[in-house]
Specification:
The complex is a heterodimer of chains A (about 300) and B (about 525). Chain A has about 300 residues and is α/β, with parallel strands linked by helices. Helices cover about 35% and strands about 15% of the residues of chain A. Chain B has about 525 residues and is α+β, with helices and mostly antiparallel strands. In chain B, helix 6 links the parallel strand 4 and strand 5. Classes of the chains: A alpha/beta (about 300), B alpha+beta (about 525). Bound molecules: guanosine-5'-diphosphate. The site of guanosine-5'-diphosphate has 19 residues of chain B, from helix 2.
């Protein structure tokens, strides 16, 4: 009998392959252990990577869970176009949920402030959508390197019946053994990209040729220029200062959110390698041009306790 | 606007190279205030892995002016509660990369009451950095952490003797602490350790080699991390793949999805499934990126086999020499993680690889983490370590943790609260004590290494020879006088040999081969077949 002996020289995976392996393992565990998993699809680059990993995890089968997009109605038009084209192409089932009531009551960031607006259109809408769908596991694309409070988040993050996170009482998480057991009404948020960094995500997009929203690439766009900040003018309610006029600026988005709350950055990077090059040279962290994190020291942690992703 | 960091033609090369660099996971531990957070901040800062706005935020929050303009520990300490109390409660993960490697740091809490979080960080680490304050010397917590790291099978240690600036950069201070701790590590039978003197605060020997300690000529901490052998989770067992799920997109395809946790596999290799013991050959290693000619740990794959075996989640596929244990009773190290202590005996759920089974845990003894001696104890409190005996309702397929960190580990879950109660590391299977209820099929299989079967063979003399060969190997075997007797024996897990003149089997070697191919024999060693096969 011929045995195939493993050689004594250990083979190792590159860091991207190792991260991919970990994420695929997690996705398969979720599908095997939960009744009704769903993937939160936010249309950004992390969601694009997550979607590709889901295709890989279940190949040659289809993606065995629906995608959920919480639409605040203030997303960039290009994001919505990309969402529809991309999910159709992949063959995934898409659920779109919007907090209609809040919008009918006039919710928008300049009236309510970003905190309350996010609370209603994102956090509340997400919790409602999860409850409506009876989902017991929600897979998200958050990474631990995004923000300080995320650095401590588990891969399987337990949420109580109110969808809330208790950072002081997290389940220990050892090896690749995830404890996904929950009681009625409780749920688990799952973060397969926990160990990826922003740079890893871009390298992977490059290596695997993963489609992303064109807003990430530099081009001339109409912007209100306010010092360092570039404000996109997609929504009619953006307050325009006296004498202020939108100008064409060569820029791109570093992270995608709602157009009124996402600043653009001046950039020439119109390909993925150029974006990577820019990132290496850049000295500022990704979420800084999102308005919400800096409202208050530790604001992300507060939002997460309340049920935000 | 960003300046160009790398020149254009070199950039494509950089991208290609960067995609191929390796990964090292390490954790930092040591007693509280030994300087872990400062060290990590220093590593990130000096290797240019922090952003300006993060440094500004830390500078704004710096209250402790003794720590310098920017308290580097604030770059890593996360939660609001922790900032208020000034301590690290939970394991926090940090990421940085150099041109040679990507690193994942598990920044683990120092306080004894958070040992379980430290164990969490240790479970996936390839390397441990143990910090010791040069002025304080070896503290109980230093020993405790070294013990937990070695218990969790971390193959490589770095012992960083910190705050050398506050100890006059004296060689004697370093050597005294080093010698004391090296003695303790030797008692642990622990892995290779690299000792070096550093100052996290001043930056000596962290990224750049220190000019203030010319008496030390070893590589800096970062140089060591960049060059030390990685891949600590790789095991010394052959191919193992716990089945995560079965992929059946259509009637033409049936694949078994899972992560290779040790060894390698190729199309054409023979694999055995447990618990059935059935064998088949690999037809395809299917992945989204195309079929593979080889898969090795920790790659996720979907295996298509030549024969339809009845395999489901929780089963194990293995190949090559060295069989996993199949048993429902084993001894293990346990780190207790629940506020309610483990009493002498307790029922719970046990999750091992991809299956969760009901189990009963019995405390044998507690391990004193200072002396490493076994001590009798009525209970195991939170953060204590003990040796237990586990009995599961279903046989598990495992290796000892020493050989394989994935097939040798498990967690315990409270069936009522769903809390994670404990982390377990399997030592070895143990024999069931006599007279504990009805003997189960799994117990018979675990003891004899085979399931029941009827073997039809042509002549009485061949039957005797086969019986002898199997018996000498430790099988439970008998020659049956009739077909009904044979089937009764088979039902009791015994190998029943039946003389049938028309049987296709004409020699002992062929019979043995057939038993192996059909997966009747699942024992740890293959039956010695003499020169016959
Ligand atoms: N003199 C000196 N002090 C240090 C050094 N490293 C850390 N410290 C100080 O020791 C204290 C504890 O450090 P910290 O990093 O918070 O320790 P941790 O509890 O292990 O994370 C702080 O006041 C640090 O400024 C060092 O190399 N030299």
């Amino acid at each position: 009998m011929v045995y195939t002996e493993t050689s004594t020289i250990m083979q190792t995976l590159s860091h991207l392959k190792a991260l991919e392996a970990e994420s695929i393992h997690i996705l398969r565990e979720v599908v095997s252990e939960f009744q009704r998993p769903v993937m939160l699809y936010s249309i950004g680059k992390d969601s694009s990577v997550l979607l590709r990993l889901a295709q890989k995890a279940f190949y040659p089968g289809p993606i065995p869970f629906p995608l959920l997009h919480v639409d605040t109605s203030y997303k960039f038009r290009e994001m919505i176009e990309f969402r529809d084209a991309c999910t159709r192409q992949v063959g995934a089932r898409l659920i779109v949920h919007t907090n209609r009531q809040a919008l009918d009551d006039g919710a928008q960031p300049f009236r309510l402030g970003t905190q309350r607006c996010c609370g209603l259109l994102k956090t509340q809408a997400l919790l409602d959508a999860l409850r409506a769908g009876g989902f017991d596991a929600a897979i998200g694309g958050a990474r631990r390197d995004e923000e300080r409070s995320r650095a401590k988040e588990r891969i399987y993050s337990f949420r109580d019946v109110h969808g809330q996170w208790d950072p002081k009482n997290q389940r220990p998480e050892l090896w690749n053994l995830f404890n996904g057991r929950i009681g009625p009404g409780e749920s688990i948020r799952v973060f397969p990209l926990s160990n990826w960094t922003e740079l890893d995500v871009w390298h992977y997009i490059h290596r695997d040729n993963i489609p992303i929203v064109p807003l990430y690439f530099a081009k001339e766009r109409l912007m209100l220029v306010r010092g360092e900040t570039l404000v996109p003018v997609e929504q009619p309610f953006i307050p325009v200062l006296p004498g202020e006029k939108p100008r064409l600026v060569r820029c791109r988005m570093r992270s995608l959110g709602c157009s009124p709350c996402t600043g653009a950055i001046r950039s020439d990077a119109d390909t993925v390698p150029k974006i990577i090059e820019e990132l290496i040279a850049a000295r500022r962290s990704e979420r800084e041009n999102r308005v919400i994190d800096h409202d208050q020291d530790g604001s992300m942690e507060i939002k997460k306790r309340e049920g935000y992703f | 606007m960003a300046t160009r960091a790398v020149l254009e033609p070199a950039f494509e090369q950089y991208l290609a190279r960067d995609g191929e660099k390796g990964l090292l996971r390490f954790l930092t531990c040591g007693s509280v205030d030994d300087g872990k957070s400062t060290l990590i901040g220093r590593l990130l800062f000096d290797s240019r892995n922090v952003f300006e706005d993060q440094v500004q935020a830390a500078a704004k929050a710096t209250r402790n002016r003794a720590a310098g303009e920017v308290d580097l520990s604030l770059l890593t300490d996360g939660l609001r509660a922790e900032r208020e109390q000034g301590i690290t409660i939970d394991v926090a993960y940090r990421y940085f990369a150099t041109a040679r490697r990507k690193f994942i740091i598990a920044d683990t809490p120092g306080h004894e009451q958070y040992t379980r979080n430290m164990a969490t960080g240790a479970s996936t680490a390839d390397l441990a950095i143990l910090l010791i304050d040069a002025r304080q010397g070896v503290l109980p917590q230093s020993r405790r952490h070294a013990f937990i790291c070695s218990l969790l099978g971390i193959p490589r240690f770095v012992v960083a003797i910190n705050k050398m600036d506050a100890a006059g950069y004296h060689r004697a201070v370093f050597e005294r602490v080093r010698d004391e701790f090296a003695g303790f590590l030797a008692k642990l039978g622990s892995p290779q350790a690299y000792f070096l003197p550093i100052s996290a605060l001043a930056g000596d020997n962290v990224v750049a080699r220190s000019r203030r300690m010319p008496w030390f000529d070893g590589p800096s901490l970062l140089e060591h991390l960049e060059t030390v052998e990685s891949g600590g989770l790789q095991a010394s067992t052959g191919f193992r793949m716990p089945v995560q799920c079965v992929s059946r997109p259509d009637h033409a395809f049936r694949g078994y999805a899972g992560q290779v946790v040790s060894g390698a596999i190729h199309p054409g290799d023979m694999v055995t499934a447990l618990p059935s013991g059935r064998r088949s050959h690999v037809r395809r290693i299917a992945t989204f990126d195309g079929d593979l000619a080889e898969a090795f740990a920790p790659m996720p794959v979907t295996l298509e086999l030549e024969d339809p075996l009845d395999i489901s989640r929780g089963d194990l596929l293995f190949a090559g020499s060295g069989h996993p244990h199949m048993a429902g009773r084993f001894e293990a190290h346990l780190i207790w993680m629940d506020p309610r202590p483990l009493d002498a005996r307790r029922r719970c759920l046990l999750k091992h690889t991809t299956q969760t089974v009901a189990a009963e845990v019995t405390l044998r003894h507690r391990v004193d983490i200072h002396t490493l001696h076994a001590e009798a104890a009525p209970a195991l409190e939170m953060n204590a370590i003990g040796v237990v005996e586990m009995v599961t309702t279903k046989a598990l397929f495992f290796d000892s943790y020493r050989l394989n960190r994935i097939t040798g580990s498990f967690i315990l879950i409270d069936p009522e609260t769903n809390a994670t109660l404990a982390a377990g590391m399997i030592l070895q299977p143990v024999a069931a004590p006599a007279g504990s209820g009805p003997v189960t099929a799994a117990e018979r299989m675990a003891r004899w290494g085979h399931r029941g079967a009827v073997i039809e063979i042509e002549t009485a003399s061949l039957a005797v020879a086969l019986e002898r060969a199997l018996f000498d190997h430790g099988c439970s075997v008998a020659v049956a006088a009739s077909r009904s007797a044979a089937s009764a024996l088979k039902g009791a897990g015994i190998l029943a040999i039946l003389v049938t003149p028309s049987a296709p089997l004409r020699d002992v070697a062929a019979a043995l081969r057939q038993l192996q191919q059909q997966g009747v024999l699942v024992s740890r060693d293959t039956v010695s077949t003499g020169g016959g096969i």
